[in-house]
Write a structure and sequence with these properties.
It is a single chain. With 161 residues, the protein is α+β, with helices and mostly antiparallel strands. Helices cover 50% and strands 19% of the residues. It has 3 domains: 43 residues; 39 residues; 72 residues, no CATH class. The protein has a 4-stranded antiparallel β-sheet with strand order 1-2-3-4, covered by helices on one side. β2 and β3 form a beta hairpin.
């Protein structure tokens, strides 16, 4: 055999052939391992191809985004209603007529988080009669004159968080 380098020895050819066959066997093992991994990857949902799997995930992602938008809208509505709900409540008991009557009179402030609502006062007299007054409250004040107890009930109610 004539080569570029001269005559090759049979031992060199045999060693080259064995190394080549070992290399071919290693490559074959690598191909089988990769083939098994690809089969597992493409098995997915009912054996569909990767493109179908990705498209399915895209559809699921779109549905999740729609649900997220709906959830954000619902949370916005709930927050709006909660801001207007009566959440700031405080009662002040007092004795408006001096001795003889326990602190049976009271003022209660029923307000939302912005200070809007109503203050209700009940004045209990010594003879057993009582009077009830209600006043609208907007932004912590009223167009009607407020008693010190009513003002205190409003101030204490707005401290609650």
């Amino acid at each position: 055999m004539i080569t570029l380098f001269g005559r090759l020895e049979p031992g060199v050819v045999a060693i080259g052939t064995v190394v080549g066959l070992i290399w071919l066997l290693v490559l074959q093992i690598i191909c089988v391992v990769l083939w098994c991994k690809l089969r597992r990857l493409f098995r997915g949902k009912g054996g569909g191809d990767l493109e179908a799997i990705i498209a399915g995930h895209g559809s699921e992602l779109d549905a999740i985004r729609r649900r997220e938008a709906d959830t954000k809208e619902t949370i916005g509505r709930i927050r709006h209603h909660l801001d207007r709900a009566l959440s700031q409540v405080h009662v002040v008991r007092f004795n408006p007529f001096g001795a003889g009557v326990a602190e049976q009179s009271f003022s209660v402030a029923l307000l939302d988080s912005t200070g809007n609502g109503v203050v209700i006062s009940c004045l209990q007299s010594g003879d057993g009669s009582s009077r009830v007054y209600g006043k609208p409250i907007e932004r912590r004040s009223s167009p009607h004159r407020l008693s010190p107890e009513e003002e205190k009930a409003i101030a204490e109610a707005m401290k609650i968080r």
